[in-house]
Amino acid sequence: MLAKVAAVSQFPGFSKWVFASEHVHNEAPAARAAAYTPLFFNALEFKTADQLSELIIPRDDAPGAHDAGVVEFIDFMVAHDVDLQYPFRTGLAWLNMFAAEKYGSDFLSLSTGQQQSLVRKLAYRAEQSPTEIQGQEFFATFRHYTVLGYYTSRAGLEALDYPGLRLYSTSPECPHKNDPEHTHLAAPKF
Amino acid sequence: MAKTVYDVIVIGTGAGGGMAIHALCEAGAKVCALNGSRRLDPRKDFRNHKQPFDMPFRGLGDPLKRKDYIGYMDNEYTEGIWEHDIVYTTAPGTVWTWRRCFAVGGKTNFWGRSSARFSDIDFKAATRDGYDVDWPIAYEEIAPYYSRVERMIGVASTVQNRPSNPDGEYLPPMNFRCIDRILESGSKKIGIPYLPDRIAQLTRSHNGHPGCHFCGNCTEGCDTGSFFSTPWFFLPAAEKSGNLEIRTNALAKNILTDENGHAAGVAYIDRDSMQEVEVYGRAVVVAASCVESARILLNSKSRYWPSGIANSSGQVGRNLCDHLYGTTARGYFPQLLGQPSFPDNVSASTVAWMPRWQNLEHPKQEKFIRGYSVYPDGGCSGFPYYADQLEGFGRDFKREIKRRYPAPVSFYIQAPTQRSDSNYVSIDPEVKDKYGIPAARISFAWDQNTLLMWEHGKQACEDLLRASGAEYLGAGQIDIPGTSLHETGTLRMGNDPKRFVTNRFGQTHDVPNLYICDASVFPNCTDKTTTLSILAFSLRTAEYLIQNRKA
After folding, report:
1. Contact between A55 and A116 (Cβ < 8 Å)
2. C-alpha span between B152 and B135 (Å, rounded)
3. Beta strands B424-432 and B275-286: pairing type?
4. Cβ pair B20, B110 in contact under 8 A
5. Residue B348 — very low, low, confident or very high, per pLDDT cuts 50/70/90?
6. Which residues in chain A have their CB less than 8 angstroms from residue B340's CB?
7. What is d(CA B344, CA B408) in angstroms, rounded to the nearest whole number?
């Protein structure tokens, strides 16, 4: 019923779309990361930001922030937005300071478990401390840009099964004819 | 050298101007159309099929440019397609966003496409409730024009038999999605209508235009012409007639008059050369959209027209109305959590509507007079905007984003303002735009009646969410005035030349060869969108002009 339009190429302007959809899965993330030259972050900042983004949106059944190149997006946005440069630079420095204070080492050198326990203190209201507001604010901003970067990437939109990645030959119709209130749907998939 | 005199000069190529051009050229008139901006090729220049990851800034735009974007439709996909160079001012206390399309075809390139007919409940509203004036026409006079327009442009809907919404000639409706079925069952419990919208989106091919492919990016322009816009539907045919010359980057400055005070042509600024150019015609049609049309008339001062052409009534620019837009309620459907994605974003979300249900049996059932309509929105709509509201990080955070993806729901109200002496367009006494044309100044505030509709709408939408089994998350904000792009009323039509600018045909009372073909002639703005009615009234005005030429 929700047939994908077969002749996509008949429409002008779709060639890039077709090209992109054929290209998705087989790009090696590592190779691409190597090809990207950071515009704003220094090497340590770039690696730290990459790791922090992956902690926020880790790889599971779907690619994670690292696979999706989220750090490249963040670097690109920060490089083009002067209002973000101070918060991101000082925020990453604060994170290293926080790591040193708690574990005597910079953030990247910690185990994933240690990194997660630090981030928990910034991410959950129940664990937040009033002395760490600067870190909490940075984390909220960083998480916002991680979500933005991931869910505007092809990997992220595919993880959501974003329906706008396809075209439809007829106007899509609710398939649950006998359940108008949708109270008897199959068990949640996710 | 003898100067060229066209039969008609048309200012503007949007819904009103495009329709006038189409009808006039078909009737054999030689038309010169002025458009203040450039011409796009909709096949090539629209970016509606680019995905966020195809865009350098993921559709968000360069932060340096983003500060200048005007509203959500002005973005990286449509960069350069909205007007930024022509300044306007606001009176103290007024906030107004004035979005103008910087392309031939105007806002028809990106419009929301909802296309309901006005009704006698609208036209005779003053008789019903005693406020302001009736329209100078009855529904049965305009109904045949609505039918012709619907046949031309293709409108998808169903016959709904509602007193405020006369039925028309429709293509098959958009199908209801899961969120629509749920809300429809909730609406039945509380007695609010929930029906397929009237939407100018081609659910099948129509008059040689291909059917929609439901990509959902209509407000970034359509590169297949599967909804009505003048560059796809009217201008090519008009040009084929050999009767049309379109001058682009031609910013109308004022209307020229002859020794009798009649319209003799238009002076415009060529935005490329910054030179003033005159073009001559036997009649002039002004269709520059509500605020700009008023600005042109007010700036057309002469010995005959010291306060602006066709302004002996003093009503040019007065009676500005607008639709209040705002999110009346937000929530989510627990029953959809974790369910597979569904294509909900197939039309930039005007699949369904809740057409006016207030004050239908009696004009004063509610605390306010007249009524409003509501558009629902929701489901899988691209970027998960709700993520910022969730706590946490990691696998659980990612899973929760995915789980909620099909579930969001929200409502958008469309509530008309009523005419008021304090809502109007005038000319700023000091500010000129960079072309030397005195700027429009807007004075506007929401009225009490409209704000009562907003309060009523918030309650109704909360009730509907609860009746539909949704979790209610609260109401949103009222958008700033001008957001709807549905301004009306600066050159109102009416039978009395002392009180109205044009007669019932859109011909100005003062100047017999000056016609208005946009929503500025509407005496009030109703709860319905403007474009379909602009098209119908413009067609009627253009044919009246043709008749007058023959006479």
Report:
1. yes
2. 25
3. unpaired
4. no
5. low
6. 161, 189
7. 11
